[in-house]
């Protein structure tokens, strides 16, 4: 039987509660001297043609491309009709804490994808243990924030977010630092911020000090959709002092929001369209 990750949580901040991909044409780009090739003999002309096609194909191969090879996608733009709750369950998401209560956290579908709205101070998480990526390097997220939590600041210890994407790595659980919070695999929580929070800085929370980090990947304008690109594997090795021989698999993800300490009634709104993993 598969063991659950046992996401733990801390109501004073997330503590592990725990798209389009460019397609390069393979059609060869003829060099300036191609006109001269036409005048050559048939066999030589055919050989050069094959070489051009091969090298052109290799140069544009997704395996060799700098952006890497797409290996897993979680889409929030394919909703058709019916219950959003059931639609998300079909993708493997579960509803924990205030995510179960629509009077606190509302879910909607818009042109930007899935919209998560905190109607008042709330803490909710949607874990998904069905997302398993054996080999990965980086993650891309298409998302944005309509309303940031007022007064939130990781710099000041007010760890609140309109939306966080948490990525769990490996299956070994590590101590939370509290008897009341379950242990968790290594994880990195990505979020969008405003104010004085530092970009791409690995913040440490009140718990999971050795196994969890929180990183703001961008400061977009309100309502603006952005694509966050983050080297997840490099972060894992750096943040947790790991060697290449110990690279883990992605063992789960979660969508989460926390406005428990925010002012302005804790009201926020954020959206996510797609999450992509590359190797």
Structure description:
With 279 residues, the protein is an alpha+beta fold. The chain folds into two domains: 19-65, no CATH class; 70-278, Jelly Rolls. The protein has four helices and twelve strands, in the order H-H-E-H-E-E-E-E-E-E-E-E-E-H-E-E. The chain has helices at 34-38, 42-59, 84-90, 232-239, and strands spanning 70-75, 96-97, 105-110, 113-118, 123-128, 138-147, 161-174, 184-192, 212-218, 226-230, 250-258, 268-278. Strands 1, 3, 4, 6, 10 and 12 form a six-stranded antiparallel sheet that branches. A six-stranded mixed sheet has the order 2-5-11-7-8-9, with helices on one face. Strand 3 and strand 4 (113-118) form a beta hairpin. The longest helix has 18 residues, at 42-59. It starts with 33 loop residues before the first helix and ends with a strand. The model is unreliable at 6-14 and 16-66 (pLDDT under 50).
């Amino acid at each position: 039987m598969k063991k659950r990750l046992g996401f733990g949580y801390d109501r004073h901040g997330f503590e592990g509660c725990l798209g389009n991909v460019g397609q390069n044409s393979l059609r060869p780009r003829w060099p300036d001297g191609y006109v001269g090739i036409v005048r050559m003999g048939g066999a030589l002309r055919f050989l050069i043609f094959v070489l051009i096609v091969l090298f052109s194909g290799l140069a544009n191969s997704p395996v060799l491309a700098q952006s890497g090879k797409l290996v897993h996608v979680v889409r929030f733009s394919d909703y058709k009709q019916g219950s959003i709750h059931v639609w998300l369950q079909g993708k493997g998401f579960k509803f924990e804490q205030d995510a179960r209560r629509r009077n606190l956290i509302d879910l909607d579908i818009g042109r930007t994808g899935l919209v998560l709205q905190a109607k008042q101070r709330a803490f909710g998480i949607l874990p998904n243990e069905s997302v398993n990526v054996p080999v990965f390097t980086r993650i891309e997220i298409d998302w944005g924030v309509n309303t940031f939590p007022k007064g939130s600041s990781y710099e000041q210890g007010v760890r609140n977010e309109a939306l966080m994407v948490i990525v769990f790595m490996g299956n070994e659980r590590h101590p939370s630092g509290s008897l009341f919070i379950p242990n968790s695999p290594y994880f990195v929580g990505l979020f969008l911020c405003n104010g004085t929070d530092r970009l791409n800085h690995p913040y440490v929370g009140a718990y999971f000090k050795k196994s969890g980090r929180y990183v703001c990947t961008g400061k977009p304008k309100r309502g603006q959709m952005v694509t966050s690109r983050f080297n997840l594997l490099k972060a894992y090795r750096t943040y947790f002092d790991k060697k290449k021989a110990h690279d883990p698999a992605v063992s789960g993800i979660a969508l989460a929001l926390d406005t428990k300490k925010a002012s302005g009634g804790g009201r926020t709104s954020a959206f996510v369209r797609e999450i992509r993993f590359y190797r």
